[in-house]
TrEMBL record:
Residues 1-68 form the HTH merR-type domain. InterPro entries: DNA-bd_dom_put_sf, MerR-type_HTH_dom, MerR_fam. This is MerR family transcriptional regulator. It comes from the Bacteria. It comes from Streptomyces buecherae. Keywords: DNA-binding. GO terms for molecular function: DNA binding; DNA-binding transcription factor activity.
Amino acid sequence: MRIGQLAERTGVSVRLLRYYGQQGLLTPRRLGNGYRVYAEDDVRLVRYIRSLLAAGLTTAVIGRLLPSVCERDGVLRPCTPELADELRRERDRIDEQVAELLASRRLLEEVIEAAPRHAP
């Protein structure tokens, strides 16, 4: 299938699909005329990529992880203990970011609360 068909089937823009290719996440076959041709499995692969991005992973991390990800019963699962360890590290990194954001939010709340109030 061509890139437009893949975009339509996955709901991902052509621009993003090209970006995934540049990042090494998708490797379409090229025809003699330069057109990209995608396989049926690429539909599922794009869905994996979108799921992992939604989980907070970067494309660089996803590129390292994709070869070791399996699907079972429609759920992505680590296929190796090493992958599970890397995913735990990514989870910890995200937890740190969440903690930093919450601290920033608390500070912002303090500043807002210290602001003068409008007279009724």
